[in-house]
Amino acid sequence: MADEAAIWEYRRLDEVSRWGSWLPTDRADWHEILGRRLRDLLVIELDGRVVGDLMVRVEDSWAQREVAEHAREQQAELGWTLSPDVGGQGYATEAVREVLRLCFEDLKVRRVVAEAFADNEPSVRLAERVGMRREHHAVADALHRDLGWVDSVGYALLAHEWAARQ
């Protein structure tokens, strides 16, 4: 929570919150949202200043009941947000690559996924730049607060694919 104010500074911006899944209504709402999501959040720092954040949520893979114990904590879902004042300089790419390394090498998950609104071009380009594969494009399946029903895309990367690129 020590980074709450710094994260608020870029998360509250229209160009950032436009594609995010959670838009705080005010500072008190932001405090509550961050408190609930803190366990899955890593910050991106540049010269001691918070300039972005990454969501890393380890979860069970889908499995049939008889083998469900083998699917526990085998997948991680990623999300990313970067302050626009440092965009386009490679910091998000570097941070997401490091989180992929963490997921596969340290957490030992077998699959990492990320989803985005299809029109969120910076996130789509980032997923592709770090080597994630587009697995689906769903039509009008995601409800955007301003745009209504829009398309979404899903990306994934497997541990053996990550290892082959290293």
In short:
The chain is α+β, with helices and mostly antiparallel strands and 166 residues long.
CATH topology name: Aminopeptidase
- From the N-terminal CA to the C-terminal CA, the straight-line distance is 34 Å
CATH superfamily: Gcn5-related N-acetyltransferase (GNAT)
Helix content: 25-40%
Oligomer description:
single chain
Q: What's the overall geometry?
A: globular
Proportion of residues in β-strands: 25-35%
Main beta-sheet strand count, sense and barrel state: 6 strands, mixed
Derived structural class: alpha+beta
Q: Helical segment tally?
A: 6
- Output the radius of gyration: 16 Å
Query: Tally of extended strands?
Result: 6
Order of helices and strands: HHHEEEHEHEEH
* CATH domain class: Alpha Beta
For the residues shown, what is the average pLDDT? 94
Poorly predicted sequence stretches spanning 5 or more consecutive residues: none
Q: Going across the major beta sheet, what is the strand order?
A: 1-2-3-4-6-5
> Any guess at the CATH architecture?
3-Layer(aba) Sandwich
Number of domains: 1
Describe the structure in your own words:
- The chain is of the alpha+beta class and 166 residues long.
- It has one domain: Aminopeptidase.
- 33% of the residues lie in helices and 33% in strands.
- The protein contains six helices and six strands, in the order H-H-H-E-E-E-H-E-H-E-E-H.
- Strand 5 and strand 6 (148-158) form a beta hairpin.
- The longest helix is centred in the middle third of the chain and has 16 residues, at 91-106.
- The model has no long low-confidence stretch (mean pLDDT 94).
- GO terms for molecular function: acyltransferase activity, transferring groups other than amino-acyl groups.
- It comes from Sanguibacter inulinus.
- This is GNAT family N-acetyltransferase.
- InterPro entries: Acyl_CoA_acyltransferase (IPR016181), GNAT_dom (IPR000182), N-acetyltransferase (IPR051531).
- Keywords: Transferase.
